[in-house]
Specification:
Elements lengths: L3 H13 L2 H24 L8 H7 L4 H14 L2 H6 L2 H5 L5 H34 L6 H35 L3 H25 L2 H4 L3 H4 L3 H5 L10 H25 L4
Helix pairs in contact: 1-7, 2-7, 3-7, 3-8, 4-7, 4-8, 4-9, 7-8, 8-9, 8-13
Length: about 260
């Protein structure tokens, strides 16, 4: 039997060997560079005073990481059916459950890689274009803040990647699964804001997209709707994540290959 580790390495190689992956990571670095260049030489007023402020500002670019991860997750299963390679994948002596787990693990690895690229690029260009602050206390505090932001946002991306994986398992078209994943990414935020404006807090707090952002509970912000707590949001997230994965497993395990 093929081990889960071998399947994982194979799936990761599929992701990393694609030109699309190199382009996405390269674009991420380019965006950080242009942001640093613009803030340092063009938008001098209000520019960060040191690399830590610049790196903190770059956390707003995490939505790009999420978009790229949704593209990878939304394509990772449906592309196998589109290219016809799913037959080669399923004739091997390995369960579909292991295949699905290996694909999900490969998506999470890409997410961690993209986050690492963003963080390293923001620190590197922040050090080049802005002042280095040598105080160890400030550096430690800044790194802790960055770790909190990246970690909490990572939870959100993992849940959305599970949704994209489910859609990828449900549809044979990569264009449809990726497009729908990206649409739901933007539509979820829009729907949350509409419910806030219309006072739909009584049931809006059960909406997945309203619970994905956990930063209010750690950084002192107000949650989107009254009555929301960390435990409530984690429960909503966990229920949806389990549901997404179960649907993805059921769809992938039961699908006939022609």
């Amino acid at each position: 039997m093929i081990s889960l580790g071998n399947l994982y390495r194979n799936e990761l190689m599929k992701i990393m060997d694609r030109t699309r992956t190199i382009v996405m990571l390269g674009l991420l670095i380019l965006v950080v560079f242009l942001l640093a260049l613009g803030q340092r030489w063009i938008l001098v007023a209000g520019a960060p005073v040191d690399l830590w402020e610049f790196a903190a500002g770059c956390t707003h670019l995490l939505f790009i990481v999420q978009l790229f991860t949704l593209v990878v997750a939304g394509d990772i299963i449906s592309s196998e059916f589109g290219w016809g390679t799913v037959k080669l994948l399923l004739i091997r002596p390995v369960s579909r459950t292991k295949i699905l787990l290996s694909k999900f693990a490969a998506v999470i690895t890409f997410l961690l890689l993209a986050m690492a690229v963003l963080l390293i690029a923001s620190l590197l260009f922040g050090a080049i274009f802005f002042r280095w602050t040598p105080e160890s206390g400030k550096a430690l505090s800044a790194l802790k803040h960055l770790g909190t932001i990246y970690g909490l946002y990572g939870v959100e991306v993992i849940v959305m990647a599970s949704l994209a994986l489910m859609l990828s398992a449900a549809f044979r078209s990569s264009t449809l699964s990726v497009g729908l994943s990206v649409f739901l990414f933007f539509a979820g935020a829009f729907l949350t804001e509409m419910l806030k404006a219309w006072g739909g807090g009584s049931w809006g707090k059960y909406l997945l997209f309203a619970n994905l952002d956990l930063t209010p509970f750690f950084l002192g912000y107000d949650p989107p709707f009254p009555g929301m707590t960390l435990g409530h949001s984690l429960t909503v997230i966990a229920v949806h994540w389990i549901l997404f994965y179960l649907i993805a497993w059921w769809t992938f395990a039961k699908r006939d290959v022609q």
